[in-house]
Amino acid sequence: MSTCSTCGIGHVYYRREHEGASLCRKCFVESVERKVRRTITKNRMLEPNDTVAVALSGGKDSVALLRILSGLERRFPSAKLLAVTVDEGIEGYRSEAISISRDLCRDLNVEHLVVSFEELFGITMDNVASTQTELQPCSYCGVLRRKALNEVARRVGSTKVATAHNLDDEVQTALLNLMHGDIERTFQSCSSSRTESKLVPRIKPLAEIPERETMLYAYAVGARFQSLLCPHGRDALRGDIRVMLNRLETKHPGMKYTIFSSMERLSELTRKARKLRDFRTCRICGDPTPNEICEACMMLRALKLSAASTQTPLTVRSD
Hints:
By secondary structure, this protein is α/β, with parallel strands linked by helices.
């Protein structure tokens, strides 16, 4: 059996094809953690006295992120780490994730908060999925989850929100936005850190870690995570992009990194060239938005009108 190309002792656990490196379990774990630290440093994501709210879904990516950031927190006594789990209201799915998240936070001694769509917006994703046909459930869920995380971060005084978007997520989203003709959002999405006026800054420490490596990292450190797929997730175009990228990566190792790097460079060029949009205050909730009403409030208003027109028993709070 071949040995690790880093330490020369351990048996190979993972081969990183684009680097030509064969890594044992210990060296693989250390390499992932080192790469995350490098991403954080390169993009100046964190300060020594930050209060970081980690979006913890209970899946492999967020579990890996919390474990890595928890290790970093111990080096900075002035920093504070907490985890936020959003309960979208999906029966038979989210309850397991909440249980996993709660146990992990207890083991790591990290404060854990759970907030629900029902508490914040008066709806559940099961309600939305059963009554809405115009947009896929994921469209509503993504927008409302971001709003929920922002709301909780503001409540507890967080200076940063850390999400577990990995390399695959970033490249898929950039190409998805490009295919939808949303050029501005294409270049925003591929950035590994993002700050908008008056919103709690969001950071993505896993932005340069492939999805396969976050999964193998979770296995390597013995983490428990939810593997069940969301029953409402059926984004066909994203799935097609995922398959295409994985095929390209198999034939041409490092292709995902190449696309990510290209998007980052284009983002920097367009950021300097384009005039930044002026943000105003949402007339309903007060959040920053380029429009009179923010996207989340527009969705909530549409859900409320739809429920009223069909006499569906769905209560939606949009203010």
